[in-house]
Amino acid sequence: MEAFRSFFTLFLALIILFSGNAQELNETTNVLYLRSISFKSEDEKHQFPIIEKGGSFTLKFDDLLASENDYYYRISYFNHDWTSSNLFKNEFLIGFDDQRISNYQSSFGTLQRYTHYELSLPNENTQFKISGNYMISIYNSADELMFSRKFLIHENLAAIDGGIFRSRELESYATNQTVEFSINPIGFSLRNPNSDLNVVILQNDQWDEIRTISKPQYVIGSELHYRYDLPLQFSGGNEFLYFDTKDNRVVNPSISHVALDDIYQTYLYTDPERKNFPYTLNPDINGDFLINTVQGDEPDIEADYTQVYFSLAKQYTLQDEAIYLYGKFSNYELSDQYRLTYNPSYEVYETTLLLKQGFYNYKYVWSTKRGFDKNNISGSHAATENQYLILIYTRIIGSQHDALIATRTLSSFEIEN
Q: Could you list the residue range(s) of the whole structural domain that residue 224 is in?
C-alpha cells in the first residue's frame, strides 16, 4: 500500500509539472460526511491560515461516520494566480508530506457521533521553505480526494498603507467601496515598478471576490501608489445574518423554536429579502463560523450537531435561477446541499443543514446560468463593514517562485468619502 501511495504521489507531481500554468486551482469539498472544516492560524484573524514564515496553524474537521478512518495530507505549491508551479516538492518543503493524521478523538456525550481530527503545521515531518501560495489536500486510505484548502505563508519585505473609500462614481456612491493603498519595498529594489509586483485583494477572505492588479497608478520615489477607482472597486454588500446554537435547549433572537428528535432540530425565524431595506449596522464576523457549546468544556468533541431549518420569504417560483445558502460553513460553495427549494404552502424558500453547535454567519445568494449575485437578495450598501486583505507577490531575482512579500488587512468600518 505504501509503495502504491509513493507511486501515486510521484504520478500526481508529474501531472502538475507538465500541465503548465493553464488552469487556476480551486478548493474542493467532495464528501458530505466530513463536516465543520476549520483551517486557521493561531491568531484566528482570518478565515484561512495567513502566517509569517515560522508561524503555525491548525486544520480541524469531523468525520460523521465515526469509524476512526485514516486520512492523509499532501501539500502543493502554486503561483500568485493559483496556476501550477514548476517547483519540485523538495524546493518548497523540508521533510515529507503524504503523512497520516494521527491526532483524532471520538465525540463525547453527543447525540450525533463523530470522530474529530486535528493537524498542526508545521510539524516534525513537514516544514515550509518559502513564502507564497499553498494548498493542503486530504485523502482517505484509498487515495480518494476528500477536500482541499488554500493557505498562505508570507514575509515582511514591504510596507503597505491604505484605506477604504466610497466609490467616486455617482451611480455606485451609495453601494460600492474602493480600496486605495501604497506599497514601499523594504530591503530590496524593483527592476520595473510597473510590472514586478502582482497585487491580489480579497473581500472578507473570499476567493470568489478578488481584484488583481500589477501596474501602480503612479510612483513617488520608492513608493508605489494604487489609487484607481473602478479596477479596485467592490460592492459593499450587506451584513451577514447570524444564529447561535451554543445552547441547544433554548431559543434566542434568531431561533424560533427547538425540538428534540434523534438529534436536536433548530428552527430559525423566516428571513425577509433585504434588497430594498435601508442599511442597519449589525456587527458580524464576515461570513465565518465559530464552534462553541455551553454543555461541555471541549467544544471540539463535546459540541453536538443540530438540524438547522432556514427559510426565506419570497412569493414566486424561480425559473432558471436558484437561491443558495452562503457562508464559510459551506466554504462559499454553491452546491446542491445548500440550494433552497420553494414551499408554496408557506411562500418561502427553505432548506435544512446539519451543523455543529456554534455561532454562524450566513446569507442568501442568487444564481443564474450567467453566474451568481451575492447582493441580489440582501442588497448592497457602501456603509457595510467589510474586511479587505491585500496580498503582494513578486518573483525575487534568482528565484523561480512568486514570493508573498507582504500582507495588510483593512476595514471599511470607518469608510472615507
A: 158-237+383-411
